[in-house]
Design a protein that fits this description.
heterotrimer, A alpha/beta, B alpha+beta, C alpha/beta, B: alpha+beta, Alpha-Beta Plaits, two-stranded antiparallel sheet, two-stranded antiparallel ribbon, 2 helices, elongated, C: alpha/beta, Rossmann fold, eight-stranded mixed beta sheet
């Protein structure tokens, strides 16, 4: 961009998208386009059916060249979806991609005001006006490039983590696979057979596990935990703690030590159905194939060795009680989160009697019982009398699809039960099998066939979960009492054993991982993907990807698929070797700077350095994440917040309050949570009143008090500042500053006699569209009660802001 | 793996045969230092209420089934007044 | 009155001179534990009892040579190492172990210690360190901590103590380890290692002295002192012994030095045979 061009007046092209009927069904796009043509600096204004399509993009590109446009506004969907698409189109046409702005008239307009077409159209006009005002002030920018470290970190060693690690390692990248348990394998190692092919689970997993152990490009860190993740895409620094096993690499897995260890406990791998010692190997096919000492139960505590039986028994002298944890610092370019799932604990469902009745078992306990290498040698025996039951019942949806457990469907339980019932029939054809279900979800390839087979084998499917299980004290048989909803009659069935088909939950320490990698979680607790359809394995944070049950419950096939997908996506970044840093980082204005250092203090990334001697403030661009908190803190206008300057934001405010300000609510929403939440409300078609006008900033920390004051001075009805939940801020903790500033503003409003309720603060995550919609409704109610005097008072109080 | 407490009695609890212990105390050799009582990992010993020839209270077995034959008392006794041997006949269930 | 027959069934009974048992050491004294660990070590190694010699000096621990059922000698004050050197050089096939106390080895016997270590004489020195001269009523010695009360420092000790592990390492010992009386298994393992290693090995055992030093300095019962060992000891193998001073809040234990150096005896024999060969050749 030459200086001549910079001095040229803006020539803006406005494109109002119909998006089929998604926008056009509610908003009058032609009217909006006509309106846009009347705005200052607008050279051309058009409406188009599908602006993001090839044809739509061609239109823009041609117009840029033909009409010499130097700014473009597209009024369509959320910039979170297509900003990059249109930016690329501008770039292709020779226009700097930072001279482009979007107005969100779909997720935040047409989809949420379906029944109020007039108001939606007026809102769309306002939003276009704001976008036009901002784009006129935008400046061209060149992005800096940052190199990407060609190493990857995979957190979690289940089948998803294993697959990702193998794919990335085969591509040629170095992979650190961190697993918190002593062995990799996860849930799949515990399962007996897989559906629908009835493959032996560990038989197909073990070769992969072995490959991971031997692969020259994979550094396997089992019995290790991630403690800290710092940095940004392409340049992460992860601190991993390798916890001590107390057994060295000399161990040859000969098992002499376990035979002499005097301490026994139920083992976790077999869900307590078998015993292990204090020194043990998690299971026979464990990788790494070595032993570990559980210091919690070992007799040697506090540095004193009371018992040295294992040391005496070990010929290779492989036991070292003095091993210390080893902290490691890894430098990686991409991270794949594959932390997997745990199972639901049905003890709280007291009507099923789990833990009270011996013969009520969970599906995971079933897997261990029926596994030939398991605690009963593959015999499905009743815990009470060790005999094969004559009849069994499976109860579906335990802990899933219910208010008493988790609300979602756990995906795998229906097929798991069908597979289990066929396994029983295979070994003991005379056992009577009942399956009590709500729905049978056999959606995948070969699933319906398996279901049909089960029915043909004589498995009895009854629609209607038992209300209660009662035990026969003498025989320890179980009475299942419930309603068969298809026959509309009650049943009371006596079986020898009941298997509860328990659901899947996210790992109990997923909130730790969430905080470490600044991820978002959905209400179900699983990690949220960047976009449910188009970016299903990307986490919203750049450079981090999701795979397996960490993202949502799924079976092995889907976990492996997703793992390979995540590896491919990570591979794209690492293959490119570099990534561009978005040009939204601040530039200092030394003439205004007073060296107060407040900007440096609020920066969550320590990216600002104040040198009092050389009278300089320097911003480390590579470390800056672009939250803008520094800009809101600076009192002396010494920071130029590129792409989100004070002037640009003020121009948006002015545009939005040009007409009927007292009827409007200006909402400052942060890109990652609140704005995404508002988008989600739109995607879910949650309806709310059309008074809200959203201004997007990257972080709620960008919102300077002067924006709020300016809006009030112009007579706006109310202002909403919305950001991520405390502790979940995408920029670590910038939203702490947001809260401080809003609280200060409330105090000021009190002092000046302005109603505090006209400024609201909302914490809403990207999954909480509901919250955004409710807040909008709540604030509209406040608006209705607003008197003209109060509006005037606000204008006077903050006049000159 | 599964964070909840494991509540079942393992199916192989009958088969796991841990050696049964026999604790031998020689009361008149004991000088009453109490090391064995204090540092036994399973607290299988306690002070007896019968004075020995030296005028101190030697240990007595509180619960022989708790003993895991770790041998710490044998190793730490300064006076060779206590030692454990393995009972050769029938063996016990899980020592826990 | 002999209670020797009481001990008959104890698996270590065969290593003790039953007629001298029970030993005269106080209740909770670390010497008994040291004896127990030493016997466990030679039992595990199945040492030929005719090939091992125990030499002790003067002090409570000095009586140990009377209790162990091997060839042993109870020497004059401070001269255990001198005697042991003689034994070893005269008959290199014997395993010679010096078991003595902090006062005997490092006060009056200090000079013998540093030169034996310097020369790397193939003897194993095990020191029971109870921070005072216990046998004679509790006088201060070279390892008494600063400010401690003893009968000859009634206003508090004004001398800084030796760091024995540092002294041994600096003098040239090839194996230096420190443990407390509570670390019985590791002490046994160190003794086994020292017995199998060529050169001057030094093992320091920090010991309670319940009737004398611990009582004078209000450290509680023997169990209290052992609990304090458990609280403050930290295992640090390979730690620099110079940095392993014993303080009220920290006792660093572990194997500090483990190197290889030819022993004095080996070099002496090599030199002798070299010179003899030379002389033989000159003669012919």
């Amino acid at each position: 961009m030459t200086e001549k061009e910079a001095e040229e007046a803006p020539r803006i092209g406005v494109y109002v998208c119909h998006c089929g009927l998604n926008i056009a069904g509610t908003v009058n796009c032609e009217a909006v386009a006509r309106f846009a043509a009347t705005l200052p600096n607008v050279a051309i204004s058009k409406d188009d059916r599908y602006t993001c399509s090839d044809q739509g993009q061609e239109l823009i590109k041609n117009d840029i060249k033909e009409h010499n446009l130097n700014r473009v506004v597209v009024a369509s969907c959320s910039p979170r979806l297509h900003e990059s698409t249109f930016r690329k189109a501008c770039e292709d046409a020779g226009l700097n991609k930072y001279l482009f702005e979007m107005a969100n008239i779909r997720e935040q307009c047409s989809w949420v005001h379906i029944h109020d077409k007039e108001a939606a159209t007026e809102k769309a006009k306002d939003l276009v006006r704001a976008a036009v005002a901002k784009v006129a002030l935008l400046e061209p920018a060149i992005e800096t490039e940052v190199p990407i470290t060609r190493n990857a970190l995979v957190i979690g060693g289940g089948v998803a983590g294993i697959q990702s690690a193998l794919d990335l390692a085969d591509t040629g990248y170095k992979v650190y696979l961190v697993e918190k348990e002593p062995s990799i394998g996860g849930r799949m190692a515990q399962i007996d057979k897989t559906f629908p092919t009835m493959d032996c689970s560990i038989c197909i997993l073990a070769p992969k596990m072995s490959d991971v152990g031997h692969h020259p490009n994979i550094v396997l860190l089992a019995n290790s935990e991630v403690q800290e993740v710092k940095g940004y895409i392409g340049n992460f620094k992860a601190k991993v703690l390798k916890k001590p096993r107390y057994v060295t690499d000399e161990c040859s897995a000969c098992n002499d030590c376990t035979e002499v260890c005097p301490v026994t406990v139920p083992n976790e791998f077999d869900i307590g159905l078998a015993t292990r010692r204090a020194i043990y190997t998690p299971f026979a096919q464990a990788v790494p194939s070595t032993y570990i000492i559980d210091r919690g139960i070992c007799l040697n505590k506090e540095g004193i060795m009371a018992c040295d039986k294992c040391i005496q028994a070990c010929e290779r002298k492989a036991i070292d009680f003095d091993m210390e944890p080893e902290p490691l610092e890894l430098e990686v370019g991409t991270i794949i989160v594959a932390t997997g799932a745990e199972v639901y604990d049905p003890s709280s469902l007291t009507n099923y009697g789990y833990t009270r009745y011996q013969n009520v078992i969970t599906s995971l306990e079933f897997e261990r019982l029926i596994n030939a290498g398991g605690p009963s040698g593959g015999n499905l025996i009743r815990p009470s009398d060790r005999k094969i039951p004559e009849s069994v019942a499976f109860i579906q949806c335990v802990g899933s699809r219910s208010e008493r457990g988790n609300p979602y469907c756990s995906n795998v339980c229906c097929m798991n039960t069908i597979k289990d019932s066929l396994l029983i029939k295979e070994h003991w054809p005379d056992v009577e099998i009942h399956v009590f279900y709500v729905d049978i979800r056999a959606f995948g390839k070969g699933f319906e066939d398996l279901y049909t087979r089960a029915k043909e084998e004589g498995v009895i499917f009854t629609r209607g979960l038992p209300a209660e299980i009662v035990e026969d004290r003498k025989t320890h048989n179980l009475w299942l009492i419930g309603e068969n909803t298809l026959q509309k009659e009650l049943y009371k069935i006596n079986v020898g054993m009941t298997i509860l088909s328990i659901g899947i939950q996210p790992c109990h320490d997923s909130d730790t991982i969430q905080r470490l990698c600044t991820l978002s979680r959905t209400l179900d607790g699983f990690f949220m993907e960047a976009h449910p359809k188009l970016r299903p394995v990307d986490a919203p944070t750049g450079g981090i990807f999701l795979a397996g049950c960490a993202e949502s419950p799924k079976d092995i096939k889907d976990s492996v698929t997703q793992a390979s997908a995540a590896a491919a996506r990570a591979g794209i970044l690492m293959a490119q070797g570099k990534v561009s840093v978005e040009a939204i980082t601040p530039k200092t204005i030394p003439e205004n700077c007073q060296l107060c250092g407040l900007c440096a203090r609020v920066c969550p990334y320590n990216a600002i350095a104040v040198d009092k001697e050389r009278k300089l403030v320097e911003v480390a661009e590579a470390a800056c994440a672009g939250c803008g908190t520094c800009g809101a803190e600076c009192q002396f206008e010494a920071l130029h917040m590129r792409h989100f300057t004070d002037a640009q934001i003020m121009s948006q405010i002015d545009a939005l309050v040009e007409e009927a300000p007292d009827e409007k609510i200006i909402a400052f929403c942060c890109n990652w949570c609140a704005y995404a939440g508002a988008d989600f409300a739109g995607v879910s078609r949650m309806q709310y009143p059309p008074n809200v006008r959203i201004i997007r900033t990257m972080c709620s920390g960008r919102v300077s008090p002067k924006f709020v004051e300016h809006a009030l001075s112009r007579g706006v009805g109310a202002v909403l500042v919305a950001g991520c939940h405390p502790g979940d801020c995408h920029y670590i903790n910038a939203n702490i500053q947001t809260r401080k500033r809003v609280e200060k503003l409330w105090k000021k409003m009190d002092r000046l006699g302005v109603d505090k309720n006209r400024l609201q603060l909302l914490w809403a995550s990207a999954a909480e569209g509901e919250k955004v919609a409710s807040k909008a409704k709540e604030m509209q109610a406040t608006l209705k009660k607003l008197t003209p005097e109060e509006v005037e008072k606000g204008k006077q109080a903050f006049a000159g802001s | 793996m599964v964070p909840r407490k494991l509540w079942r009695r393992p199916l192989d609890s009958e088969q796991i045969k841990l050696p049964k212990a026999e604790i031998h105390i020689i009361p008149d050799l004991c000088k009453g230092c109490d090391f064995c009582i204090e540092f036994c990992p399973r607290k299988a010993l306690e002070e007896s209420d019968k004075l020995n020839k030296r005028g101190v209270y030697p240990p007595k077995v509180a619960d022989e089934s708790k003993c895991t034959l770790c041998g710490f008392c044998t190793a730490i006794c300064p006076d060779f007044a206590i030692f454990t041997t393995e009972k050769k006949e029938e063996t016990s269930r899980n020592g826990r | 009155m002999s209670e020797s027959n009481l001990m008959m069934h104890h698996y270590l009974a065969k290593y003790l001179r039953q007629e001298r048992m029970p030993h005269i050491w106080c209740e909770g004294c670390g010497n008994g534990i040291l004896l127990n660990c030493f016997l466990q070590a030679i039992n595990e190694l199945n040492v030929d009892l005719n090939k091992i010699v125990v030499v002790s000096g003067i002090g409570c621990i000095g009586r140990v040579s009377g209790y162990i059922n091997v060839d042993s000698f109870h020497t004059t004050h401070g001269r255990a190492i001198a005697f042991a050197t003689g034994v070893k050089l005269a008959n290199p096939e014997l395993e010679v172990v010096v078991i003595s106390g902090d006062g005997d080895l490092f006060a009056i016997g200090g000079n013998h210690f540093i030169h034996a270590a310097r020369r790397n004489v193939d003897i194993k020195v095990i020191c029971a360190n109870n921070f005072n001269y216990g046998m004679t009523g509790g006088q201060y010695g070279p390892t008494t901590p600063l400010d401690a009360w003893t009968t000859t420092t009634p206003y508090g000790n004004i001398e800084h103590p030796f760091n024995l592990a540092h002294l041994a390492a600096a003098a040239g010992a090839v194996y230096v380890a420190r443990w407390t009386s509570l670390h019985v298994r590791r002490l046994k393992a160190s003794i086994i290692k020292a017995l199998q290693k060529e050169g001057f090995s030094f093992i320091e055992m920090i010991s309670p002295c319940p009737e004398i030093f611990d009582r004078y300095n209000k450290m509680g019962t023997a169990v209290d002192v052992m609990k304090w060992f458990r609280l403050v000891s930290q295992v640090r193998h390979g730690c620099d012994p110079a940095k392993a001073e014993i303080t009220e809040n920290e006792i660093l234990v572990g194997e500090f030095v483990d190197i290889e150096k030819p022993s004095y005896g080996r070099l002496l024999r090599e030199m002798t045979s070299r010179v003899q060969d030379k002389l033989k050749r000159e003669e012919s």
